[in-house]
């Protein structure tokens, strides 16, 4: 098996777990030698931080923020997490729009 395929196969489950909220730490700490797992773990970390910031900021906007924008932001983050999970299980290096660029700049 080629080295790239082996790295992806060994990192699939770790990468998948990286999109489960705070569990982004699992691939970042538990499989830091696997580039595939770390790639998805960093995206999961940025997505989690984005979700926390969205919920926190929109929580200050009465009515519209609480009942309209906050759920939309949460659903967007959930959709990105689901896409990331599916792509990680398919063995793809899928880069999220905007957040993927931020994740690439992080050195761990």
Automatic annotation (TrEMBL):
Keyword tags: Membrane, Transmembrane, Transmembrane helix
**Out of the domains of life, which is the source?**
Bacteria
Segments spanning the bilayer are 12-30, 42-61, 67-86
Topology in the lipid bilayer:
Multi-pass membrane protein
The entry's localization annotation reads:
Membrane
Question: What InterPro entries would the database entry show?
Answer: MamF_MmsF
Its predominant location is membrane
Per its record, how is this protein called by name? Chloroplast import component protein (Tic20)
User: What's the source species for this entry?
Assistant: candidate division TA06 bacterium DG_78
